[in-house]
Design a protein that fits this description.
Helix 5 runs parallel beside helix 6 and helix 7 packs parallel to helix 10. Strands 1, 2, 3, 4, 5, 6, 7 and 8 form an eight-stranded mixed sheet that branches. The protein is an alpha/beta fold.
Length: 307
């Protein structure tokens, strides 16, 4: 119920001819053609102070290279203040139409009467992707996504990209089409791969879109005592000449986050502390160095796409 089920490592198997370039993406970004490029990315900023504190500290220290913000969440103003003070930080929008925690809820940015099919009886977003896929009007999804981007801009956030909380906007062809339309209208890069990895919904890409080769993300099937090894194996699996996004979920396992994420072990407070411990560990940093991994950002892709 927490997330659309993704495989832990989604690899590019077939590249469409439309993306054939005289130069590889790495070369277009200014790196050697055989570079291993990695966007090390934290999700869910705005959810809680603990998530913000862990994620922004990781950005400041270079432990991650990118993050994305959930605009409907209660702690978004704290992230907006950081974004205004750090205009070069790589911050995107984690477009949000679900609210998964048991007692800690949020709803729409747009007026409720304009997005009624997106909300449950309590006036908050539903807790599962399947509910959105079944009930939400694509027109109202689009209205809400535009409201979230507009709200971010009004807060002084200049987003570098968009992606989707819980993978909800990848669940059906109509949701995918809406996601892509809004991103393109605002001239924002969007998370996509060269294959069709997000369930059964196709993602028809245009020549100016810049898809990634792979995404690495931990899910519920990863043994908790093998957590660090999962990420180390992911680093070792990176192929020359590719660009990958590794998605982590950072937060401190403190009283606040335990209360926010009560009765929800997957992606909960202990899970997020484990991710903090991994990305700040000497072993993880050594793996990046030993495998000649270059950390890159969505801002670099945004700048390339704008050329």
């Amino acid at each position: 119920m927490r997330r659309l089920i993704w495989t832990s490592v989604i690899a590019c198997l077939v590249a469409s001819p439309v993306y054939a370039q005289t130069k590889t993406l790495a070369e277009r970004l200014g790196y050697p053609a055989n570079s291993k490029l990695l966007i090390l990315h934290a999700d869910d900023l705005g959810t809680a102070h603990s998530v913000n504190a862990a994620s922004l500290a990781a950005l400041d220290k270079g432990d991650i290279s990118s993050a994305s913000i959930m605009i409907p969440t209660p702690w978004v103003a704290e992230v907006a203040a950081y974004a205004r003070a750090h205009p070069n930080a790589d911050l995107g929008l984690h477009l949000t139409v679900t609210s998964e925690w048991e007692t800690y809820r949020w709803g729409s940015v747009e007026s409720r009467d304009k997005v009624a099919t997106l909300l449950d009886s309590a006036g908050t977003f539903p807790n599962a992707t399947a509910i959105v896929a079944k009930n939400a009007s694509p027109a109202e999804i689009e209205r809400e996504l535009r409201a979230q981007v507009d709200r971010a801009l009004a807060l002084g956030i200049r987003p570098t990209h968009v992606d989707s909380h819980m993978g909800t906007l990848f669940a059906t062809p109509a949701l995918v089409a809406t996601y892509m339309k809004v991103a393109r209208d605002y001239r924002l890069p969007f998370l996509a791969l060269k294959t069709v990895p997000f369930g059964t919904a196709p993602m028809p890409l245009a020549p100016n879109d810049i898809p990634l080769d792979a995404v690495i993300i931990a899910n519920e099937t990863i043994p908790r005592d093998k957590w660090k090894q999962f990420y180390l194996d992911g680093i070792a699996s990176l192929k020359p000449g590719t660009i990958t996004e590794m998605i982590v979920h950072l937060g401190y396992d403190d009283a606040e986050l335990q209360a926010v994420m009560v009765n929800h072990e997957p992606y909960g407070s202990v899970w997020r502390q484990r991710d903090v411990d991994v990305v700040t560990s000497p072993e993880f940093k050594k793996a990046l160095k030993d495998n000649n991994v270059i950390l890159v950002t969505w801002r670099q892709i945004q700048q390339l796409q704008g050329k």
